[in-house]
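In this supplementary section we document a worked example of the pipeline. Step one takes a protein sequence of length 198 as its only input; no multiple sequence alignment statistics are reported here. Step two produces a three-dimensional model, which step three serialises into structure tokens for compact storage. The input and output of this example are shown verbatim.
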Amino acid sequence: MPIYIDFLSGKVAYRAKRANRRNELLARAINISPKENPLIVDATAGLGRDSFILATLGYEVILLERSPELYTLLADALNRAKTNPDTAPIIERMTLIHTDAKEWLVAKKYPRQPDVIYLDPMFPERKKSASVKKEMLILQELLGTDSDSAMLFEVAIDCAKRRVVVKRPRLAENITARAPDYTLKGNSSRFDIYLAKT
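The serialised model returned by step three reads:
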């Protein structure tokens, strides 16, 4: 079956219609009002869903994706969403870049220092189960896992102005040996929040 990303229908569109800063755990993890005009860098863009929700809530988001396959899928989805009057203003707040996030952050290619860097790396599943979504299994087969996620975290924590937010399966190990400053837990996943170094 074909693989494509769609921001105009399905679960992500339904989620976007209901999204607000109270019911979106990621927005609570970011803990900054869009009115402050923070810059958020999604360093592991993947399917782009979380970035789309953040842009729906009014945040400016830069999406970094190093996989040429995923970058192509995301670019196609963004271009289609631009043609829809309901989603076009949302897409204007999203900037997609095909790059390795570590290199991009180290080189300081951002237009201004990111207030928040968001990481949702693809970790290997400890065991296959019915709870693992088929699309995630397909992506893992296609792209493998992010074996350098700990290195990316270290770069991110040095670059972020205010915090790094890491999405993890609810019971999974931390991305790094450093414990998060605090954690917000959902039903199947959690957000580990690391405050920037001062």
